[in-house]
Structure formats: C-alpha cells, structure tokens
Amino acid sequence: NNGIWIDVTANGGVAAAQTALENLPQYSGTNVSAAMRCAYDILSNGLPSGVSSSDTYVLLLTDGAQSVTDLANLPAEAKSTAYVNKWLNIWSSYNHYEYIPAAQRHVDTENPLHTVNDGYYIGAPYYAKKITDDDGLNSHLYTVMLGNNLDWGSKFDFENWRYIAGIGITAHDHLKSFSDYSLYTSSGTELTAYYNSILYALSPVLETISVTDPMSDHVDFLTFTDSNGNQISNSVAAYDAQTRTITWNPKAAAPDSDGHYRLYYNVRIKTEAAGFVDGQLYPANKTTTATYTLEFPDGHTESGTKDANIPEISGRLGTLSFTKVSEDGGGLQGAKFKLVHDPNCPYCNGAHVDDITFTSGANGVVSVTKIPSGHKYKLSETQAPSGHKVFSGTLDVTVSYRTVTISGSSYIWNNSNKQLIDPVNSAALPATGSTGTVILYVVGALLMLGALMIGRIVWRRREGRGEV
To answer: Does pTM surpass 0.90?
Structure first.
C-alpha cells in the first residue's frame, strides 16, 4: 500500500525501478483500489520539487476485477449512497445483465449494491477521479487489463465475458469507466504492443512553439551558425538588436537526427566592460522561454511555457609582454606606447574599448595586464627614449582568450625573442648610442677631406693589397 517515486531519467533510475518491481511483495487477490490510492498519495504529496501532477501519467496493469475489499481505507464520502449511485448510473451504460450467468443473478436481485458498498468496486473509481479530475491534480490514467484462464470466483466469470456479479458489467468496462485510455488483452505476448500503443497515446504533436531568448547584459550576439560553427543565414530565427533578443520558431525547421530542435549561434562576452573579472562565470542569457501548444492523439491539447536553464560562460584578460631594444639589442627604458582598439576589429561588432598607454621599464621590459580579449588592436610608439627615434607604423595585436599575438614587420618586431626594435633607416642619421654611429661619424670626417684625398687613400689601399 506504499508508493514510491523513482526518477528513471536520473543516473541509475532504471535499475532502481527494476529493483523496486522485483521486490514487490506477493499477495493473493487483486486490489485495484489500493493501487489507485497509492498513485493518489504520490501525486498529492510525493512528487519532487518542480514536477507538476498535470505533467504525469499513471499506468495501471491489472487482471481486472477487485477481489479484495478496501473498505477500511475508504473515506465516508466514497461509501455514501449518493456516491455509489453516481457510479451505478455510469456503469448502467455498460450493463449486460442478460449475459450474467444464472448462478450469479440472484446476487444482483437480492442486493444489487453488495460488491459496491462492501468496498470492492467503488474505491478504484473514487481515487481515479481524484487523480484525474476531482482534486485538481489533472493527471492522466491509462489502464491495461491482462486476463487469462483463471478461476475468477464469484466476482466475475471469464468464460462469460468476465461480467462482475452485482454490477452487471465486465471487469474491463469497470476499468474503462474511470480511465482516460484502457486496453484489454488475454495474452501476455500482446502486452508489448499495448504498451507501445500507450506510448503513442502519450506522444503529443508539437502544434505551435515560439522561443524568446534575450541576451544577458554580459554578452553580445554575433551570428547564427550551423552545428559546425559556420556562419549561416537563419530563416527560422531572428535577432532584434534593439531588444537584444532572439526569436525562434523551431517547428519551421527540421529536427536534428535525435529528434531534438537546436539553434546554434555565437556570442561574445564583454571583456571590455567595467568591472569585468577574469575567469568569472557570467550568465549567457536572461530567461529563455518556450511557449508551446501540444496536441495529443486523443484530440486534447495542452498549452504552456517552459523556461530553459541559463548557461554560464567566462572570458579572459590578456597580458602583453615584450622588450623594447635598440639596434644593438640593448634594452631601452622610458619608451611610451599606445594600444588602440582597431576600428575594423572583426570580432566584436564595433564595441568600444578604451585606449591603453604604457611605458617600458628597466631594461626595456614591458608587461601590460588586463587587456580585454576578443579584440584586435593597433600598437604604436608615441615617444622614444632620449636620443632615439620611434618606430614607424603600427603593429597588430590580437587578444583571444588570454592568448596575445603580435604581428608586424620583422624590421620592427622580433617575434622569437619578443623584442620591439628601432628600425634601421639608411637615408637618415640613426639614433645615437649604437656602434654603427661611431663608424659613420669617422666616414663623415673623411668625406670632409675631399674627393681627391679619398681617391688617393683608396688607390694606396688597393696597391697595398696587390690590386691593379
């Protein structure tokens, strides 16, 4: 008489259900009323949080006829003459009194309510209607009757269409009177087909559905994609930039191979936002809601809404590190730089990122932390150390999930050593401080002696080498 709730979708749930079935105690007799009472108790008080009784289905497998009285467990309401008469009126539409064996007819004549008000037949419909209607639980009851060549005793006679003495209806008629869907078979081999039939009856058709998926304040929508991440033009979903919300009609698209409908799209987390914390989880969406209408094979429809779980994502901040050096490899302290967000950044749909300025430290070492990822930047030198020149042009800097990539002319950037170098420019005097300047100053002094003198010096040098 005790019912338990087992979530068969949970890890180990199927095994737990099988164990519970195998451990059911065996009793002689059939007590459909007690089964209905157990189901009622679970639906009323035993469902886990978040499960609505209106989303449940009760499946009863029985040999049909109540052979054990449940009178002690029935409330006075169920045993009242008014309630019993209510069900006798319902059952009268199934009445086949003329088929009841003569040996059983006297039971009806002497006391037509004998097996009803003694607690045999009124308990099952009493609790069944509380499950499906009377108590607002709005569950659904499906019954399967398996009959075989048993001695049905005085309650009904299998060979005479299983009529219940004292009521004048078959055991299956009795089940049908309070079931949403009921099947009868005399063969156990047909049970699988019947279960499949019930599963079909439980399988609704998605009549209408619409999904609204608002972006959270921490992300930006980028583009719709296919399952492989390739950008596509989606005909069943649209993004409204004003409300920052996706609207989606899954029914207009084909489901995936597993029967599920999925929408794929890319977002980026706003790493440039004030207060962003590296590695912290942020909600990707606000509440995403599906509004739907389901149509069941029996013709009834159910409408409702379902909120999806909100996924969380994290972003990263990058660190830009290099060494500012002169041509001879010596570190240069005091060089000033600016990192500016590339206006043509292909990753962020034109988001604003503040400029970052910084200065090389001792030995020319540069280390700039907390650079927003998911962006492309331009790096330029705004002021060289005393006696040196800024490098011309800019370098491209890309920060992707904490990985920082610098690219540019090898004249300026030595990627293997992570060194930023003053460019060599032969058309102008280079900056002071390198060995190359001393040599050029000597050459400049020689040039001042005049072209003839230089020619003589060159001739003598060649003569000394044995050249003609």
So the answer is: no
